[in-house]
Write a structure and sequence with these properties.
CATH class: Alpha Beta
Largest sheet: 7 strands, mixed
CATH superfamily: Spore Coat Polysaccharide Biosynthesis Protein SpsA, Chain A
Shape: globular
InterPro entries: Nucleotide-diphossugar_trans (IPR029044), Trfase_1_rSAM/seldom-assoc (IPR018641)
Distance between the termini: 35 Å
Organism: Hymenobacter nitidus
CATH topology: Spore Coat Polysaccharide Biosynthesis Protein SpsA, Chain A
Pfam families: DUF2064
Number of domains: 1
Protein name: TIGR04282 family arsenosugar biosynthesis glycosyltransferase
Strand content: 15-25%
CATH architecture: Alpha-Beta Complex
Radius of gyration: 16 Å
């Protein structure tokens, strides 16, 4: 199995990350939260026996150290989140991937077990999704590119997951759903996470 894990990430820079969260807790605190989430995502994925690709939102400064050693580095391209995710999946399937899973860096309760379950599910299902509590998803995987998943969506809204599942039904694709987890996008999300740590 040629399995690819795609991680969408940003450079941890003041004022450039967790901007919704920063509106209420400030840029410095939001950056610290993002660095914590990055470290968690790295810890969860570093030992997985798959090809690991980190897709950065923008070019790194010249001479910067590797974002995460042992991960291929690529730069996202596309006008919106859907186009950027579609391009990343298309790259992996063009490289011969038989299963590809994408995650972000916003989910503090994501575990290596969730990612392993996702890849295992792709042996018997065309699609796997990790529903987020806000109506989006924290993980998406597929056996081959499904362009419909990335088109005509209003990203970062509570309809994204429902629209994805509707697309899958229309295409007669078998979908495996992981447990619902909560991303950290707002101060309320942050407080909920801290309350269960």
């Amino acid at each position: 199995m040629n399995q690819h894990l795609l991680v969408f990430a940003r450079q941890p820079e003041l004022g450039r990350v967790k901007t919704r969260l920063a509106r209420t807790i400030g840029d410095g605190a939001a950056l610290a939260v993002y660095e914590e989430l990055l470290a968690h995502t790295h810890a969860v994925t570093a030992e997985l026996p798959v090809r690991r690709l980190v897709w950065l939102a923008e070019e790194k400064p010249g001479g910067a150290a590797p974002f995460w050693p042992g991960y291929e580095e690529h730069i996202q391209s596309g006008l919106d989140l859907g186009a950027r995710m579609q391009a990343a999946f298309a790259y992996s399937f063009g490289q011969g991937a038989t299963a590809a899973v994408i995650i972000g860096t916003d989910c503090p309760t994501l575990s290596a077990g969730h990612v392993r379950e996702a890849f295992a599910a792709l042996r018997t299902h065309e699609v796997v999704v990790g529903p987020a509590a806000d109506g989006g998803y924290y993980l998406l995987g597929m056996q081959r590119l499904q362009p419909a998943f990335f088109q005509n969506k209003t990203w970062s809204t509570d309809s994204v997951l429902a629209e994805l599942l509707a697309d899958a039904r229309q295409l007669n694709l078998r979908v495996h759903q992981l447990p619902v987890l909560r991303d950290v996008d707002t101060e309320e999300d942050l407080q909920a996470w801290r309350a269960v740590e």
